């Protein structure tokens, strides 16, 4: 066990810690952050997963969203993985939307990415096992949320594990990566040219599956990446056809930034808590 | 008028803007940030000044404190200056606690600092005039808060202008800069060896003045810079002798970070609003 606690901050009466560890799945050193609420009444607490967007690390959500106030208010733990494998030995690309910081939370099958870019398995398997040892009085109930590429990740991971995650929410997610420039570039590199293999990583396809958790999506109307990267039409059409519980809301005047996320994060926590209590 | 708006974000129903302008006082290009609440009822609104600490810019408070939620809740504008003059032509030092990012919010008298390092006059004069043009329906009521070096700045500027500022608050402030390593280093460089000239920039001395606004100070018990840089004894002794309204509270387990500030910022806004309404 290589787990090291590298930061520790009291925050809103709970505690935010940052850890580093060697990941067997990703074959590199990784960091993640975990917030534990005070749990003064020593009750069972649920766990929310947060996945960040392109170029981010686990720090962006910790430092810019103000989530700790809401996690303490609702007495829920929050775990924040990094957005990709890291390090000198891990393949990268000069572009900011491919390689390190841009994993798209999938399991890559193509060289040179396949050896390290297994973020899906890392999160759903290795980090899940670690989290269970770090959250005292864990209730066993989990949900997942994310932003942009991390909104895509939350939807994909949540829908592929519908029995495990009670709810999914996303800010400005990439809803149809197979048809958006960011997604096409990443999927071509990580999964190859055969688009049949892309379907299991595309929320617009997964939403047609047998079982899908309830979904809340919030999109800013002044988002510079909307609608080009974040088009909702196909996802909503497929959700409607299958009668899914999907709430999609547009917020007037808001952009793609953490200022937007911070503003509406209370709505997302309230949504998740409906299913986590 | 060289004022340019370089960023604009809707945030908690109000608007956060970042500006750049040429400062005649500082003889360089400067940035600052301003938050305007929604003011949907079109009432007169007050203005709070925030001063950040060593190594910061106006971005730290904007991005890490979550203050926008409270500014919108209380319908108060917030202005955030940078922490020093900036640019290639502005003298600097290799150390992080002197020069750019470390102005100590005073008017320097010593070379090479005297030409540019006039942050006291910049804030109380030039930026004040600019702010009055940027805050619609300004009530004319102002208060000031800050963190660490900016807590020192808030106390000094607030007490030197007691008729203007209705209240002062500080997180982990340098309360006796003339006796703390950071302050001694900066004052020696900016003001010279004669300690008589230091008194007008030392909160522990200014608190003895004829008129002092009400003060709230919050200090974390696990702050790595406490008590060495942030000793409160002399300030509190002088405040008590003069019967000042000074609330000094210690928060168990909290450190020097923005996680600490974010946790207790609601108490500070509530304190200020008592005097700004």
Automatic annotation (TrEMBL), chains A, B:
Ordered alphabetically, the record's keywords are: Hydrolase, Serine esterase
Has keyword Metal-binding? no
Enumerate the NCBIfam families for this protein. Answer: fghA_ester_D (TIGR02821)
Q: Answer yes or no on keyword Transmembrane helix.
A: no
**One BP term from GO:** formaldehyde catabolic process
Give the top-rank taxon of the lineage listed in the UniProt record for this protein. Bacteria
Which source organism? Trichococcus palustris
What does the record give as EC number?
A: 3.1.2.12
> From which lineage does this chain's organism come?
Bacteria, Bacillati, Bacillota, Bacilli, Lactobacillales
Spell out the catalytic residues: 148, 223, 256
A Pfam cross-reference name? Esterase
- The name under which this protein is listed is S-formylglutathione hydrolase
């Amino acid at each position: 066990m290589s787990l090291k606690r590298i930061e520790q901050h009291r925050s809103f009466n709970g505690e935010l810690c940052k850890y580093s560890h060697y990941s067997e799945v990703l074959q590199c050193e990784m960091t993640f952050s975990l917030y534990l609420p005070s749990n003064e009444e020593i009750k069972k607490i649920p766990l929310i997963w947060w996945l960040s967007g392109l170029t981010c690390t686990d720090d962006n959500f910790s430092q810019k969203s103000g989530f700790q106030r809401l996690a303490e208010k609702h007495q829920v733990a929050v775990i924040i993985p990094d957005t990709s494998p890291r390090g000198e030995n891990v393949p990268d690309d000069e572009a900011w939307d491919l390689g390190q910081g841009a994993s798209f939370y999938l399991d890559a099958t193509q060289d040179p990415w396949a050896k390290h870019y297994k973020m899906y398995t890392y999160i759903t398997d290795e980090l899940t096992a670690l989290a269970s040892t770090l959250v005292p009085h864990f209730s066993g109930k989990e949900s997942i949320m994310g932003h942009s590429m991390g909104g895509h990740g939350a939807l994909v991971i949540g829908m592929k594990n519908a029995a495990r995650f009670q709810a999914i929410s996303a800010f400005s997610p990439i809803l149809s990566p197979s048809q958006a420039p960011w997604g096409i570039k990443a999927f071509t590199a990580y999964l190859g040219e055969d688009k049949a293999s892309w379907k299991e990583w595309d929320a617009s396809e997964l939403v047609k599956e047998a079982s899908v958790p309830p979904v809340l999506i919030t999109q800013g109307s002044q988002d510079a990446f909307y609608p080009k990267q974040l088009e909702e039409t196909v996802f909503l059409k497929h959700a409607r056809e299958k009668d899914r519980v999907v709430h999609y809301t547009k917020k007037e005047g808001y952009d793609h930034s953490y200022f937007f996320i911070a503003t509406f994060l209370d709505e997302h926590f309230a949504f998740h808590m409906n299913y986590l209590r």
